[in-house]
Amino acid sequence: MDGVLTDSEPLINAAAVAMFREMGIRVQPEDFLPFVGAGENRYLGGVAEKYGITLDLERAKKRTYQIYLELAPRQLRAFPGAVELAQQCRKAGLRLAVASSADMIKIEANLQIIALPPNWWDAVICAEDVIHKKPAPDIFLAAARRLMLLPEQCVVIEDALNGIIAARKAGMRCIAVAHSFPAAQLNGADLVRERISEILLQDIFTIQAANATGTKNHNS
């Protein structure tokens, strides 16, 4: 979701920086980059560790979400082509899931804003549904179970290395979009596109078919 469907990464980054600032700690936006896609606990906790801070994670996360939810209605947007691709996949008969390391409060807000609410999807998996977050494969495996699909039948669309690693560990193919990181940093994806608007339905079908036959397909 974050960084794939929605341009939410700058907003959660700004909210986290503001939360730390309220604590009297001046962190830098780039401090969070290694933890993108790993869930808010790691996103905030990893930066706290860097600065030697003991953080009450639940309290910090609650405040970060409060700030985020103030920003999102005015500033959050779907990436161009994201909603259209989801709708094309639906028309093509594909089963669709959002599998996000974010908490449900953030997922619901984001999906409502871009007019693809949670009940539009066949499954929505959030941080509360699994113990181990990305780069562990648990979120994607949970999504496959909800969709009643085998992992090798699934294609993941990701924007971060943590998510690509998780997809690989889950035994799934992966298309990466360079929304959050340069394409050169998205190692391990089967296909890399600069933006989600460049992903074609045929890309998804081709990669899914390659997974079924065991064909290697590392194109960009």
Account of the 3D structure:
This protein is globular. Helices cover 44% and strands 8% of the residues. The longest helix has 19 residues, at 57-75. It has 8 helices and 5 strands. It folds into 2 domains: 9-75, DNA polymerase, domain 1; 82-213, 3-Layer(aba) Sandwich (Rossmann fold). The protein is mainly α. The strands form 2 sheets. It has a 3-stranded parallel β-sheet. Strands 1-2 form a two-stranded parallel sheet.
DSSP strand count: 5
Say which CATH homologous superfamily of the largest domain is assigned.
HAD superfamily/HAD-like
Say what the CATH topology of the largest domain is: Rossmann fold
Q: What is the molecular shape?
A: globular
Strands, helices and their partners?
Layout: H1 9-22, H2 40-50, H3 57-75, H4 82-91, E1 97-99, H5 104-113, E2 123-125, H6 138-147, E3 155-158, H7 161-169, E4 173-177, E5 191-193, H8 201-213
Parallel strand pairs: 1-2, 3-4, 4-5
Short synopsis of the structure:
With 220 residues, the protein is mainly alpha-helical. It is 44% helix and 8% strand.
